[in-house]
Known about the structure:
Blueprint: H1 3-21, E1 24-34, E2 38-42, E3 48-52, E4 58-61, E5 69-75, E6 79-81
Antiparallel strand pairs: 1-2, 1-5, 2-3, 3-6, 4-5
Amino acid sequence: MNLKTLCALIATTFVFCSALFGETVNLTGTVVSVTDTKIVLLSSSKEEWTIDRTADTTVSSGKLEVGSTVTVQTVSTSAHKNEKVNNR
């Protein structure tokens, strides 16, 4: 196997694993709702995010209650941007 093929194989494996396992992201916003399985945040740019609560989800700042501003750390595969919110 030549060096170019080996490098291409390693790069492809890295990209695949990143997509499969997700990267860690931090989302900051006002808590809109909280359940045992989901957190909904409204960011300062009025983007609404739904975050699946998993073992990888942690609140790194703030108190997790409706109306509070928090920063949530999770893997990117657990966070989903909702449609634009105009009236909040």
